[in-house]
Structures are given as C-alpha cells and as structure tokens.
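Consider this record:
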Amino acid sequence: MASSGQPSMMQQASVDTISMPTIIPFPARYSAFALCVAGLVACLAFVLVSPHLWLAWVGLVVFAVLSGTGVHDLRQARHAILRNYPVIGHLRFLLEFIRPEMRQYFIESDSEAAPFSRAQRSLVYQRAKGDPDNRPFGTQLNVTIAGYEWINHSMQPTKLANHDFRIVIGGTPQPADANPAQVCTQPYSASVFNISAMSFGALSANAILALNQGAKMGGFAHDTGEGSISQHHRVHGGDLIWEIGSGYFGCRNDDGSFSPERFTANARDPQVKMIEIKLSQGAKPGHGGVLPAPKVTPEIAAARGVPVGVDCISPSSHSAFSTPTEMMHFVARLRELSGGKPTGFKFCLGHPWEWFGIVKAMQATGITPDFIVVDGAEGGTGAAPVEFSDHVGAPLQEGLLLVHNTLVGVNLRHRIKIGCAAKVITAFDVARMMALGADWCNAARGFMMALGCIQAQSCHTGHCPTGVTTQDPLRQQALVVPTKADRVRNFHRSTLHALQELVQAAGLDHPQQITAHHIVRRISDTEVRLLSNLVMQVQPGALLGPLDEQHNVFRTYWPLASAESFQPVTQGPQGLVAGFALAA
C-alpha cells in the first residue's frame, strides 16, 4: 500500500513514548527527612523575619540537626536501613537498644527465665534487703507440668538449732604410705553456700570489696576467680579460695609459666583457705581469653603479675601439666607449697574419658584432690562466645552425677568433697544439688544480684548501670560498699535459713543427708517418680571389677581412659557413641 503521509500506529506510539517524561514518584519513606528539611526552611524564614522569637531559634537548631542527620544517613554505607529510611530509621535502633529493658519490665512473665526469671531476681532482692520473702495466695508454678519437682516432707519434722551448715574440706584419712608433705594439714570448715569464682577486672573494685566484706560478716568463702588476689580482696579479710587458671595470675614467671616462689608467697597467706586449679569454666569451657591491653590497669596488672598496658592472655590449657598423672602431681605440689591447705580443681565436664583418665591417675599415683568443683554449662557471669555459652560443656546435673558416681564406683568419694556451681539461687536449688551428690554449692550471679545487678546483660560493655561489672570509676561509685556488704550477708543468711526449714521439714539434721530419694519429679500429667529412680546410682567399688553390668557410659568410655594421656586410648569397634547422662 502507498504511504498516505500519516504516521502509522506504531510510529505514533513511539513518538508518544519518547515525548512523555518519566516521572519518578517521591518515595514515601523519605517523608520524615523531607519534613525535617521543610521544618528547617520554615524556621529559617521565621528567624529572618522575627529574630527575637526564641522558639524559632530552637526549631532551627533541632531541624538543622535532624536534616544533617538525614544527609549523613543517605551518604553513609554501613546501615542499609538508614539509607532507605533517613532520620526515622534511627527509631529502629532506639527500640532495639531499649528492648531488653522493655521486655524485662513490661512483657515477660514472672516465671520466664532469660537467664533468671523475675521471680528469682525478686527473691534475691528481697532476701538481700531483709524484706519479707513470703508469697501470698499459693504457688505461681504449674505443679501439673512435666519437670515440676518437690521435696518430700516428714510427719515428724526436726528442730535445728541454727542454719550455719558447714562441711570440712580436707583432712580426710589417707593411705598409710601417703607422703606426709602431700597431705592436707589445714582442713577448712566451709559453709555449704559460698561465692563462686568472679575475678577483679570482670567485677569492679567496689563489688569485690562488698563481696569480701559480706563473706567476712557471714562466715563464708569468696572465690577469687582466675584474676588472682587483688588489694581489694585483702581489705576486709574474708576467707578466700584462690583460683589458679592457665595464666597462673599471681603465681607466674615473666614468660607466663608457673612460679613456685610467687605461689608460695600468696598461698601461705592466712586469708587463703583453699587452692583451686581451674581447668575450665561452664560459661566457655575449652576457650581461653584475652584481656585487651587498654583494660590492663595498674591495679589489675599488680594483682595478676603482668605488665601494665599489655594484652593479658589466658591460654586454653595449662602448661604446668599435660597428662592426668602430671596433673595429680601438680595438685600434690600445690598442696605442699601452700603449707598443707585443701587443694583441688574446678572443671566443666567435657569428654568423659578425660575425666576417667584423671580418676585413673588418682588410682595410679595415690594422690587425690581434697575437693572437686563441678561447673555447669548453664553458668556464666561475664561475656562468652554465643556458641560456647549455648552449645559447649555438660549441664550441671549431668556433670555432677558423673563425677559423684565415678568417685563412688572407685571407692574415692569419702576422700574428696564435691562442690558445684551454675544457676544456684534458692534453698531448693542447694538441696537439689546435694541430692545429686554435691557437698556444697557456689553462686555467682545470685550474689551479683545481691549487690544490685538488674540483669541488664551489659557486663562486657563497661557500662554496667549498677557499677557491679565495670572499671569506670564514676559508675562503680554508685555501689556503696557497706550497704551492699550487708546485702551480701543477708542473702547468704536468708538462703541458709530457708535451707534449714527445708531440712527440718524433710525430717533431717543436715543438708548432706538429702539424697535423690527425697526429691520427686513429675514426668507426665499422671506420673511422678523419685529422682533416685530417674538417675543411675553406682554402687561403691562397682568400677573396680567387670563393667558388664554398669551404665553404658562406663562400659564405653572407661576402657578408653588413660592416666598417661587426656587422649582416648582407642575408639573401639563401635566408636565413641555413648552419652553420659546417668539416666536409669
């Protein structure tokens, strides 16, 4: 067809497309920024017209700051949300910042434990302040849910004179051929409830002062943590358990190795009652640590025996020993150097064959520690890598059961006292741990709350709102030592008084008489069982003979353990497949 001179439909559409301008709509997400700019312009106009209006000047400053913030948000590259939502995007970070406080105060229930429930914290606060801790209108717990536990009471309760329950650590009968220099000659009468390991550096100076003064007033022990003995530990003279970690702080040579001379100088101080070798801790077992150089202040450096302003390193393992046998000889050496004070070790259970290797070393050398402290994976006062806090190490129940039953099975339990630590808050917590095999309990976060800790979970930031876990001199001034020392003493006293009432109600004379037979656990809506029927109890000497009738953990891992190595002897034909929870 001949062209008529008129544009075709396709040509017309093309012309229309080219001629129509592309309109990009103003993003609604920029509205807050646009309003700030508009407010800035308006205030600027008011200032120019009426410079005497102070409100216009205030608005000018406010909108100038907000507009400048918006420009910065659009240009920065770190946060995508601020580039897309200038100015108003900061609201997200504000809400995220205050979320823990809002959840704790307004949202969570009294029974939600993250990691401690409001009910648990309130109980500590009440007991620390000396306020009444009775609860009206009955229990708030669901007694029909699986996992609920209680202690059986007696129709003939006992009447005890006081609540100052104590145990003697060290000084137990030793074999006739034991080396006199390696025998504990200074046994320690310890409370069944003590302050767990928390170092100066992790805690503030005022927190250490208050804890130790409270321990002195209440007659219980204060574990130094691996940060060694600082000047603040010595002011009030409270009983100390000196913890020796892999960094050998307070007893190290310049190269970081163990120094017998420096150890002896500190260990023979009358204030030091026991020596505790730290193998691992529940918060981050198998993980070392580094205190950055800027945090190594003169006070911390003096306590630890390290240079000021240099990274302070805690290796993940000890250099003084590398086998279970060497470890037992190290225990004996420290006991001798300390002048015969109770000496033991603390650990969080990991590979069962390593623990069994330590026990075999006790059998082979005839050297036994005076005590063992079992740390549970649910413990932890400071900061630790999330994977370690959540997924490394055995919980306290499993660790305590294995340690207790192993020592019973090799006839060594009567020579070794067992302590434990991990989320011990109430008297029932103490009673339950004793039912599982502990002789005494330690608490860290409970005593932190007695000092005023509000579970802000900012321990690692240096901005602790209550001055408990900061080295900021202004922040820690908020912690008044005499007042908080009273609260530490009150919390300990009230908890032991509650324990006394539990022991009396059960018809017993001492918490050490509490066994798994006294604790009942609900396992379903229609069934409850004694704890003794839910956890396995090894008979005395049972591990000295054939293992055919023993729990799978012993049949599998005991043959793999060696006193000469922390490594397994062999994996065997079935591999390392056994669990170590001592379930029946």
Remarks:
- The chain has two domains: 27-107, 149-533.
- The mean pLDDT is 90.
